[in-house]
Design goal:
This protein has 351 residues and is α/β, with parallel strands linked by helices. The chain is 40% helix and 19% strand. It has a 6-stranded mixed sheet with strand order 3-4-2-5-6-7, with helices on both faces. Helix 5 crosses helix 9 and helix 12 runs parallel beside helix 14. It is globular. The protein starts with 14 loop residues before the first strand and ends with a helix.
Length: 351
Amino acid sequence: MSDTVMPAATVAKPRRTLTRAVIRFAGDSGDGMQVTGEQFTTEAAWAGNDISTLPNFPAEIRAPAGTLFGVSSFQLQFGSQRVYTPGDHLDALVAMNPAALKVHLADLKKGGILIVNTAAFDQRNLEKAGYPKDAKGEPKNPLNEPGLAEQYRLYQVDIGAMTKKSLEDLPMNAKEKERCKNFFALGLVSWIYTRPLDPTLDAIKKRFAKNPTFVEANIRVLKAGHAFGETAEMFSEHYGIEPAEMAPGVYRSMTGNRALAWGLLAAAERTKIPIVFGAYPITPASSILEELALHKRWRVRTFQAEDEIAAVTSAIGASFGGAIGVTASSGPGIALKGEGIGLAVMAELPW
């Protein structure tokens, strides 16, 4: 491990004020990009910014790790002014592997911040991502192409190695340590945009309350990422975004799934007709089931089925019984429910 992992303290770096920023965290579906994005969103909210987010999940069920089909991402725009969309072009992209870089690089502005996890850019992952091969038949590493650093502010960070270095004395296996690397990326980006770590520290303590070792590990890695940004010479400045002017009141984080669930609750209450929600847990639809299960007093019954076919037919059965039958799933899940949906359409059921 080089001495740059834990560099000596330096003079405070200049902080430049921005009005807004668009960031995307991207990696394999197992890299924790949704958790990373959600926590950064919470940090920005605590800082008083207006926010809009866009989670993006792989379309395939259990796509092979390291492939283009398995890339998961979370994008957000936050600012000191009113924010209406998650943004179009990215100011910063965090790519945890070659596939994430290949899928999302085109959306990064010229001159934008590009942070890559060099630990993942090995020959095996480059081949999985389909990078062209050189004369020797080996895939070309895009990080070695001079054009990348010329077009973007490229920061090559060995996130994997530094995560392991931070956790070398903890009683965890290699896989458990590897899974902490998303918090290193979060700590680094939190420093770059001067976001508070307190909400993430609280979330870690709650999320891993039953395992003190995991609490210690993730907090340690989060702080290591933050310290790296603060002390590494490659980062010459960081950025601040002032709080947005917003009317006083109580604000709630609202996702599309929560909005859908609350709409169903309102429908059940206004029509006085009970709703039966039949579902099989699958990303990204699982949170609809979880939200509805919290509000059973509002004429809603939830049923967690053993598979997609059972989920859709339970909704159909509820409709035959006079209730409003509802189901939800991912793209592949809907494909599995196709035959049941066809039956419901032919029967003209209000489900």
